[in-house]
Amino acid sequence: MRIFKALLVVSLLLGFSGSLAAKETKVGFVYVSPIGDAGWSYAHDQGRLAVESMEGVTTSYVESVPEGPDAERVIQNMARKGFDVVFATSFGYMDPMLKVAGQFPDTVFMHCSGFKMSENMGNYFGRMYQARFLSGMVAGAMTESNIIGYAAAFPIPEVIRGINAFALGAQSVNADATVRVVWTKTWYDPATEKEAAKSLLDVGADVIAQHQDSPGPQEAAQEKGVYSIGYNSDMSAFAPKAHLTAPVWNWGPYYASVVKSVQDGTWKAEAAWPGMETGIVDLAPFADMVPAEIQKMVEAKKAEIIAGKTDVFVGPIKNQDGKVMIADGVAADDKTLLGMTWFVEGVIGTTE
Amino acid sequence: MTFELIIPLLAATVQSGTPILYATLGEIITEKSGVLNLGVEGIMIVGALAGFIAAKFTGNPVLAFVLAGFAGCAAASIHGIVCLLFQGNQVVSGLALTILGTGFANYLGTSYVGQSAPGFSPYAIPYLVDIPGLGPILFNQDPLVYLTYFIPVLIWFYLFSTRHGLGVRAVGENPSAARAGGLSVSLYRWGAILGGGFFMGLGGAYLSLAYTHLWTNNMTAGRGWIAVALVIFAFWRPGRAVFGAYLFGGIMSLQLRLQAAGTQLPSSLLLMLPYLLTIIVLVFSSWKSGKSAAPAALGVNMKPTE
């Protein structure tokens, strides 16, 4: 059913765009979940809308595309219909996209969150950990029990890096803050994710953060009358009394710049990992519950990160056993960050 | 795990067991009449979506909950049409219903992902909630959980102490004899399929109206299959279904709480627990009862002319 629907959407959209002027740059997006999810795909679709508003560009998208053979078919379909740029926004699209990229050398392929590339396929991601650090500062300043709960998705470097950055942020303002981690092994399952947040609340957490896309953990925090930190997009509508802020994605400017470079003919395949200075990651507006001095402190830190004066993973950083993993005064290089599989001191949980 | 964590754990156990309990009771009613309905998962998700949409548009969760039950009836009626009207294979029909229901709900539900709707929230029952131990576990839940304190008793009473319930069991055990005794087998089976579908729909709606106030694709996440297994575990008895549903709810809640409490066990191992338990339960119940507890005519169609 889902496949049929995806096909239907593609063919309709392609039918429409095909009848328009021939010179337009056609940009396609492939999403892993519905765009209404308030999370990951929603954020990407906001970026697509920014591209759509550019001169001489038409966009289309296919949502809820499962990772695997279906993804290959959808990407291939877009390439065959003459799309100039295709963005695939989930890790599992990497190999299918690489395969299709080999078959269509004149199309530009962009893959989000992976590491493989070719002549006409680039990859990109954003330094979300910078925004995670800032949201951790807010959580660390607001907690009274010094237990912050973190509903985590899958134990992969991206998620672990986010938890570590969050914990470092919390510890930078509150040395006693601990972060307790519960893995749900889901990206979008409101029931399980809410239950995970509740289990963290039961062990005394009074601020809940999350990595999954559903607002389930936010609901749990609001029902218990404690605070929460969202993710992906501003989740305050789901828990207005709990939601303090959220590390958010802002893909629009980046997508626009990629499409621009394709139009200019200056595009080259690269592995792009832009940070807060480009605005690709940011913090959602603070709720009124966050005192002005904390807001000011976080804003100051944000300005330092943007100016490049400071970074998140600067030693000494110890792991859970107290062993120094990043030496004093050393800033971790990208290779260390991309392969991070250990928790920093003060995180309670296991990466297995 | 310390003592003060046990009470929240047990309270969460009751809550996560509730959707499974609704669905298990529905399947017990259906199977007691001799009809095997493997479409529980599909019917539940249709109920979850129907409840969510109804709550969103009417703003009335009670009405939405009832409508979700009727949506469950509507989905289950497909099984009735295939198996009773056309004498189709019950196993195949049920499996198809699961796939159809899931696809149908995803198709209609995609545009509702990420929205929230009004629903049920916990309501502490005065005085009862103050009972030490039991109070916070049983009487600080939402109204849909309180309903499940009565429903199994009513179903048990209906099946085992009323004339009509005897009829349902008779068509499940020996339809030919029931026919000879003047009962309409297909009418009883229709009633059991629709009644069972009603409770399965309620179980789905519990997920989107009370457990969370959100809708998502594949929201039931295999709970319908657990219900099918639990019917066997419960030996087709409503009382044991309560026990089984809470056992599963407990395992689901326990694995997350073990992590929160800071255990060093790998999370993958903990997440396996509910499924491991399903297998253990099935092995245990077949070893314990063989096939004797199942309705004798379960899964066997009966032609109106036989």
Major β-sheet annotation of chain B: none
In terms of DSSP E residues, the strand content of chain A is 15-25%
SSE sequence of chain B, one letter per element = HHHHHHHHHHHHH
What are the low-pLDDT stretches of chain B, counting only 5+ consecutive residues below 50? none
**Coarse morphology of chain A:** globular
* Domain module count of chain A: 2
**Greatest interface and its residue counts?**
A-B, 45 and 43 residues
Number of helices of chain A: 11
- The overall average pLDDT of chain B, rounded, is 91
Going by CATH, the architecture of the largest domain in chain A would be 3-Layer(aba) Sandwich
Radius of gyration of chain A: 21 Å
What name goes with the CATH superfamily of the largest domain in chain A? Response regulator
Stretches of chain A where pLDDT is under 50 for at least 5 consecutive residues are 17-22
Total E-strand runs of chain B? 0
Average residue pLDDT of chain A: 90
Net shape of chain B: globular
Tell me the layout of helices and strands:
The complex is a heterodimer of chains A (352) and B (306).
Chain A: H1 2-18, E1 25-30, H2 40-52, E2 57-62, H3 69-80, E3 85-88, H4 94-103, E4 108-112, E5 121-124, H5 128-142, E6 147-152, H6 157-173, E7 178-183, H7 190-202, E8 207-210, H8 216-224, E9 227-229, E10 243-245, E11 247-249, H9 252-264, E12 271-272, E13 281-283, H10 292-307, E14 317-318, E15 324-326, H11 334-338, E16 347-348
Parallel strand pairs in A: 1-2, 1-3, 3-4, 4-5, 5-12, 6-7, 6-8, 7-16, 8-9, 9-10
Antiparallel strand pairs in A: 11-13, 14-15
Helix pairs in contact in A: 1-3, 2-9, 3-4, 5-6, 5-10, 7-8
Chain B: H1 3-32, H2 40-58, H3 61-85, H4 90-109, H5 134-138, H6 143-147, H7 151-161, H8 163-173, H9 175-180, H10 185-211, H11 223-233, H12 238-260, H13 267-289
Q: Can you describe what's shown?
A:
- The complex is a heterodimer of chains A (352) and B (306).
- By secondary structure, chain A is an alpha/beta fold.
- The radius of gyration of chain A is 21 Å and the shape is globular.
- Helices cover 40% and strands 18% of the residues of chain A.
- Chain A folds into two domains: 152 residues, Response regulator (Rossmann fold), CATH 3.40.50; 184 residues, 3-Layer(aba) Sandwich (Rossmann fold).
- Helices cover 71% and strands 0% of the residues of chain B.
- Chain B has a domain of 205 residues.
- In chain B, helix 2 runs antiparallel to helix 3, helix 2 packs across helix 11 and helix 11 packs across helix 12.
- Chain B is built from 13 helices and no strands.
- Chain B is mainly α and 306 residues long.
- The longest helix of chain B is centred in the N-terminal third of the chain and has 30 residues.
- Chains A and B meet through strand 7, helix 7 and helix 8 of A and helix 1, helix 4, helix 12 and helix 13 of B.
